[in-house]
């Protein structure tokens, strides 16, 4: 997956922007910009806006236009048509829960960085054959969790993952401690009642706590 960042930061992947990528479901487009600003202020610049609601595409467009410090991406991308629509809306990365040959071809042709979803070793190997090294592991907990990802690290160390699904503040550090995990995806910093109340201060605070879930220091004293 190539970088969604300006050339001065071109070596940085979405997986390395922050330890957590918020998975945002927007019901009201009017919430998109203040919500994104709260997440960025809390230290979570990579924001995955899902296409699960009719407001999703418009929310991506609004964030891309108005929140310049955000790296907004599109989630739940499942068709080639959505790939084109999201790129036109300003999405800077794409995330799919799974993939087909047609969807993968569209994402590769788009020029937009992408994380195709995988849940098995065979899917990982197939993507590696096609030059894809960064993937979404979904549904993470249901598909085997940290034990499964740890077992993949030995034979397939070139694959890196953003696990999503069933991850919260209690188990996120366990995922982030794995050598083949760059970040995790989650929704816990986006409680429905806070969004309904437009309590952006609370969301910023929760985002800041999530941003603090950094990878533990290695023996050499550095972190990834």
TrEMBL record:
Its EC number is 4.1.2.14. Pfam families: Aldolase. The keyword Lyase applies. It catalyses: 2-dehydro-3-deoxy-6-phospho-D-gluconate = D-glyceraldehyde 3-phosphate + pyruvate. It comes from the Bacteria. It is an enzyme of class 4 (lyase). GO terms for molecular function: (R,S)-4-hydroxy-2-oxoglutarate aldolase activity; 2-dehydro-3-deoxy-phosphogluconate aldolase activity. Gene3D superfamilies: Aldolase class I (3.20.20.70). Homotrimer. Belongs to the KHG/KDPG aldolase family. This is 2-dehydro-3-deoxy-phosphogluconate aldolase. The lineage of its organism: Bacteria, Bacillati, Actinomycetota, Actinomycetes, Kitasatosporales.
